[in-house]
Amino acid sequence: MYEANYSEVSQFVFLGFSASRPVQHFLLAFSTAFYVIIVLGNLLIVFVVTFDPHLHSPMYFLLANLSFIDMHLSTLTVPKMISDLYSGHKIISFQGCAVQIFVLHVLGGSEMVLLITMALDRYIAICKPLHYLTVMNPRVCILLVSGAWVIGLLHSVAQLAFVVHLHFCGPNEIDSFYCDLPQFIKLACTDTYRMEFMVTANSGVISMGTFFLLIISYVFILVTVWKRSSGGLSKALSTLSAHITVVVLFFGPCIFVYMWPFPTVSVDKFLAILDFMITPILNPAIYTLRNKDMRTAIKRLSIQLLNLRKFS
Ligand SMILES: *[C@@H]1O[C@H](CO)[C@@H](O)[C@H](O)[C@H]1NC(C)=O
Q: What CATH number is attached to the domain comprising 39?
């Protein structure tokens, strides 16, 4: 039934960063290097947390889950962008575009819920330390992580349910390097006013609400830490500032893109770089360079691996 609706447009063209040749070469080198670091760094975190029993705690499990999502968020958009920059052939099929939008919102929605879970984890660890181990037990952890995925999935299905009714009849140029709802809806020939409202309501309000919730909870935790002002202060501060940086950089672009989904000047694509290339690099950067437990675990694992090779 929907087939007939969108048969007129079978592919979309990305305008990408239509700049001069040298700028494109720079972008190609920059995004390739970043992507390699993103994949290796996040894989390292997932690997170390999975295989080092010292890191089998809720905080690190959640961190590994965040790395897993970040890596996929990048993989969903950056390799396509790299290949487009390389070949100059910037086309995506209708189905490809729909899949990108769908997966993007599953991952994005899950990441938002996961960030709330991480804030909750820090809140209990810092403000209710005596209850930490009983509240954040492995079962609760798995429940929270599965909850994040289910909510992401529901959000994405709800979002896409509005979009399947759209009618495309000609314009197919997307002023970006990936498909997302605001860009996609802009191309539809049907009256999109209601649709724009839905996108703003669903994605925009959710990102804004989650953002303020997170900022308030971090301020609350910081005040608690500051009042107590005991030995753990600097350690808590470094963990919390890392979380807050990730939250601000992740939500900033989301809020902008979805609260003002149809701006006249397209800055969306530049902001999107923050979400697909900068936040995914922050986790590995922050946690492998600044976190002592993580660094020790990496050393321990590499020594074990070296020994394995020596004796085999
Ligand atoms: C995600 O979190 C769950 C629950 O704590 C954990 O069992 C799982 O190993 C984590 N996933 C990754 C990729 O680390």
A: 1.20.1070.10
